[in-house]
Amino acid sequence: MEAVNIFSFHGGIHPPENKAQSLQLPLGRPRLPKELILPLGQHIGQASRPLVKAGDKVLKGESIAVNNGFLSSYLHAPTSGIVTSIESRPIAHPSGLSDICIIIEPDNKEEWIPLSPLNNWQEEAPTDVLAYLSKMGIVGMGGAGFPTQVKLQGAQKNILKHFIINAAECEPYITADDMLIREKTLELILGIEALQHLVQAEQVIIGIEDNKPTAIAKLNELLSERGSEIQVAVVPTKYPSGGEKQLIQLITGQEVPSGQFPADIGVLCQNVGTCVAVHNAIYLGQPLISRFTTLTGDALKAPQNVEVLLGTPVDHLLDYAEANNKKLHRLVMGGPMMGFTLDSTAVPVVKTSNCILAATKKELPEPDPEQACIRCGMCEQACPASLLPQQLLWFSKSQELEKAEHHNLFDCIECGACSYVCPSSIPLVQYYRHTKSSIREAREAAVKSDLAKQRFEARKARQEAEIAEKEAKRLARKAPAPAKAADTTKAASKAASASAAPAANAEAKKLKVDVAIAKTKLKKLQKQLLEAQENEHIEDIQALQLQVTEQEQQVKQLDEQLAKVTAAQAPAASASTAQSNPAVSAELKKAKVDLALAGVKLKKLQKQLVESPDDTELKDKISSLEKELSAAQALVDKLSAAPASNAQEPAAKAPVSAELKKAKVDVAMIDVKLKKLQKQSTESPDDQALKDQISGLEKDLSAAQALVEKLSAPAPEAKAPAAKTPVSAELKKAKVDVAMIGVKLKKLQKQLAESPDDQAVQDQIANLEKDLTAAQALVEKLSAPTPEPKESAPAANAPSAADLKKAKVSAAMAGVKLKKLQKQLTETPDDQGLKEQIGKLENELKDAQELVEKLSAPAVQTSTTQATAPLAANVGDLKKLKIDAAMAKATVKKVEKALKKAEEIKAPEIDILRQQLVEAQKRADDLEKALANPAEVKAEVAAPAAPSNANEDKKRKIDLAIAKASIKKAEKNIELLKEQGKSEEEINSSEWPKKLEEAQQKLDALTSDEMPESVQTATQSETKEQDKSPSDLSALSLEELADKIKKQKIAAAMAKAQINKLNKQLANEPESASSIQQDIDAARQKQADAEALLTQLTDAQAKAKESQ
Amino acid sequence: MGLLRISSPHTQRGGRRTSWVMQMVILATVPGIIAQTWLFGWGVLINLAIAGLTALACEAAILSIRRRAVAFFLKDYSALLTAVLLAIALPPSVPWWVTVTAVGVGIIFGKQLYGGLGNNPFNPAMVGYAMALVSFPVPMTQWLGAGSLVAANEILSFSQSIDAIFSGLPAIDSYTMATPLDGFKHKDTLDSQAAFASIPALQAASINSWLWVNLAYLAGGIGLLWLRIITWHTPVALLATLFALAGVFHLFDMNHAATPWFHLTTGAAMFGAFFIATDPVSSCTSNKGKLIYGAGIGLLIYIIRTWGGYPDGVAFGVLLMNFSAPLIDYYTQPRTYGHKKAKTGLKIGEDN
């Protein structure tokens, strides 16, 4: 056996060893104490989770706590007895704080659990053996108590050259390892061999200081007896040669790179105590329940080493070693260089307690008063890490953290050599510890400020993008006007009847208006988001909720838009199939209902997700729901396409409507994606990739919307010849509009509930109610004259024109009201922001009035044509109504904003606000009811479309509206219950789910009843646009492909973003590394899938293009 | 039972306090003081007494003004050490007020006004010395000669020294002569051989007396090294640089450049190398830094001696290098354990 080459390390000191006193007596075995105190956190890493409860009887070696994460280990009962309690007790920790401990009262029977040694450990897979060691609670018994299996796993990432057994024990006073080697030489060797079997190192070396000749002799004797490969490296006695890094340098001459682990240079270090514990676990099946501890110090009459059960209180040991409590001045756990003082003798021995030093005042005197540093450099000569301690002190004192870090403060191992030699008695290590924690704090603060900066920059970028978008939209608005005109003329020439064109135009414009409203909403939402970001967390969350509700609404709106258009087209299409296909349309309706339900569920879940963004279960649910939703959408598509394909001239209608539907679905999908991304971006506002995706999606969205507009323009043309169909479509649209108002109001109610406010707001709400009743009256008025022109078509012009004028007047009135409201607002004490908003509102009003004028122009045009005249009038009125509604909405929003601000100022007046909230909710309910009326009224509007069974139809529609309203109410109530935190059971036991079901059934029945009727009403509508179909089909497939590609790209990008996020998380919370790693893997898989699909799609696209 | 709650480490090396360090340095000057007294008379000891009293008085006064614990800081012996070093450096016959002024300036302006022990960027003894040298050049350059060479043919007696210091000895001129360095500097056009033959300051007796003084300080310095109070880096670098420069120039110009041996054994070479340049507070910290610092002083000593306006350059060399010590410190950090190479400068954020 060749001798190991011994290197040297810089610095080091030679403090008085004081090891002899504790080696005078043989190994002691104290009696069982009255109680054993087992802290759940025995070492670094997470505390274990208790498996027992107070009153449980435990056997010796029974698991009483399991590991709780990566850096955690098992804990076992050191003896048999009863768990008396699990409570907070002072523990052996430098902080002197208490922690949760399991208290066991021994029954003195020492009953072991049945032991099952791992006899076939040589055959077992190393990972199984490691898992076994983990279950046996084995941790490093030298220093920090790093769980052994974690260290061994870490050692396997590189080829292991040196397996070093640390027996140096360089600290003065401590002789526990010395005694352990003497007493358990064979066990130690067997343990080392078992570990070597696991790690397969090239060289196994026991590093031991030359002040333990007896132990060295025993080791050498046994090793030569066994012919073992294990080498013994005797290193000169110098503190801190037992430090892992120093011992590695002594034995291998290599340094562990800063910030890395010994495993990175192919070295593994294990303490001798750990090796013996491994032996006990593998050969005897005994978990780690005891350890060798040195009891020493001048305050003890019988200093000695003891084999002590974990959890034994220190005072029991001091009694055993005959402590003189009068002389005891300083009680140190660990050695005099790196140990920490104990406040209380009640603390227990833990897995890492290697020494208890009961020192007298003479032995460890109080430190001399600190003198000025004279930069003598003795510390530098002593530092084993080759630092410049005097410079570090200088930087620590002056809080020059950057300089301290630059001088490698974090390479300080806090061995205390510098403090030991300092002639000025400066507690250097204390300074370094303080500075280290200051630097850590500063780092955290820097991360925070970085985030804030990024957020600010992102906000700026977003604002710029917004402005650019606005500008682009403004330009786009200007540009398409002539193009549209050209389109319409072209379409008109193609269409069978010229009179169809204006109606189609009106419809397209309506759609445009809808889109515009949606967009303004989006903008407002973004503004709110910005405001929230400017403020901090709580506000942020509130704003987020607002955003979610608003976005939900947008989804609803889009869905409804989709439903509306499909409904408008479905009758048109199914008209050609006449009564032949009622079943299909009923199915279609059902599918739509499903779709809506899925959408609602999805939204709810998303809301929940926002509240608790880490819930993976929720995410899973959402993804499954999304799948369901898309399936439902597909079904709806299929079904709505089916009747179209069954039509008499399938080629004519199907492509257009199908394309339209698809486009709308795309719009909805993109919207959903966009919202998701926005949510993500609010969660992680610094992710540039996300923002890019969002802006890209926004572009996609606008493009898709443009497509919808384009497509919907020719679609109504097809229906144009039959006057009644558009009328019914208009009516439906009107209904939808009313429903939208209802939704807005609901939202308003919700927001009111969230932020109730002062009298001014309630006044404004009253005003709003007035506006709404006016609007309802208008709707009633509107529905009344329509049948008349139906009956006497030629005479329709005059009344419709009169209506139009009336509507205009009412619009103007509404405007005036709005202005008054604004005046009131300015009079009421409010800040500059409100005034700005009023200015904005005025602009909006102007725009709206312009829109009225624009809309009235086609209405006048149409009034010249006979059949469509009343319709046009209706259109104008409806638009006005809409504008009123929009204006009302705007005022509501204004009120909300004022409310928020007021809330910020008058936070303490919560009780008053709550009362106001109740009032506001009442009013909101009233409004809701009021809204149900216009729906009925609107339903009446549909009547003239089918005069033959008008009355019946009316009734049915009223029923339908009521049913819908009740569904909504039920859903809302359920949601409210959920928000109130009621459990699922409570909700189920309440009446609402039942009511919801009933209402849905009713609705289903009604819609299935209604369908044939509406089909009948639309019988006349037949459309012919054959020339479009073939090119459209190919274009469609291409577009589809493009959309899919986009989606996959987004999916890939999202996956990437998630990976980034997770990586960040990983860096921040290394303790939950494994779970995060799994998440990362999953996200990578997703990304890979998406990319694979993407390549397929792009290929397909290329092929499609070629074929074209 | 009141247990002491304190952060590790719990033990300290006994006995080696700052005051012990200062005492040891003072003790290490004893051989040199004996040699000087023997060669130049009692003036050295009288100066020491004056300087010591002045230093303690100034230190106590400023400490009490600064509201510091006077006794605690006086017991660290740092003021006394400054006084000793300064008194040794002064000519033995210098008037008492020069000593008082120099020590007062050194203690008050060189040390206490910067914040006391450990915070002075300059060596306080050299601050006082340089101030006196610049302000009172005549008494500061009036060195006593070796007994056999001066006109009086003997060194000053104790009473004469008292007279010289406190009331001005009229016959002082018969006891003074130029130091060898001064003599060599003012050889003007004479070549070395002629100078050593003719100039009294360069006669063997004069040179030998300075050799003895330097050897005594070398002995004291070796003692400090043995006690590990100073490291070898600064003195060795200083002397080696001085030796090397003198050697190079002597090789190039035998006739006008003095030998390296002459440079090392005259003036304050050894005293400066072991007692002045090694002042830990104002010098560099790392071993590499100490080498550069010492070499810089050696270079400056040679330059000032050879081409400067003063016969010796230790004080100015040390003060100039004191200026650059912080900079040198930044660029001479040792390689820390686990790092591939040493960090230099202060590039924050750099990582290796």
UniProtKB/TrEMBL annotation, chain A:
Belongs to the 4Fe4S bacterial-type ferredoxin family. RnfC subfamily. The gene is rsxC. Binds 2 [4Fe-4S] clusters per subunit. It is found in: Cell inner membrane. It comes from Marinomonas sargassi. This is Ion-translocating oxidoreductase complex subunit C. PANTHER family: ION-TRANSLOCATING OXIDOREDUCTASE COMPLEX SUBUNIT C. Residues 468-490, 929-956, 977-1033, 1066-1088 are annotated as: Disordered. [4Fe-4S] cluster 1 binds at C373, C376, C379, C422. Residues 478-490, 932-950 have a biased composition (Low complexity). The complex is composed of six subunits: RnfA, RnfB, RnfC, RnfD, RnfE and RnfG. Its cofactor is [4Fe-4S] cluster.
Automatic annotation (TrEMBL), chain B:
The chain crosses the membrane at residues 20-39, 45-65, 72-90, 96-114, 126-144, 210-229, 236-252, 258-278, 290-308, 314-332. The gene is rsxD. The modification FMN phosphoryl threonine is found at T179. It is found in: Cell inner membrane. This is Ion-translocating oxidoreductase complex subunit D. HAMAP family: RsxD_RnfD (MF_00462). InterPro entries: NqrB/RnfD (IPR004338), RnfD_bac (IPR011303). Its cofactor is FMN. Belongs to the NqrB/RnfD family. Keywords: Cell inner membrane, Cell membrane, Electron transport, Flavoprotein, FMN, Membrane, Phosphoprotein, Translocase, Transmembrane, Transmembrane helix, Transport. It is an enzyme of class 7 (translocase). Part of a membrane-bound complex that couples electron transfer with translocation of ions across the membrane. The complex is composed of six subunits: RnfA, RnfB, RnfC, RnfD, RnfE and RnfG. It is a multi-pass membrane protein. Its EC number is 7.-.-.-.
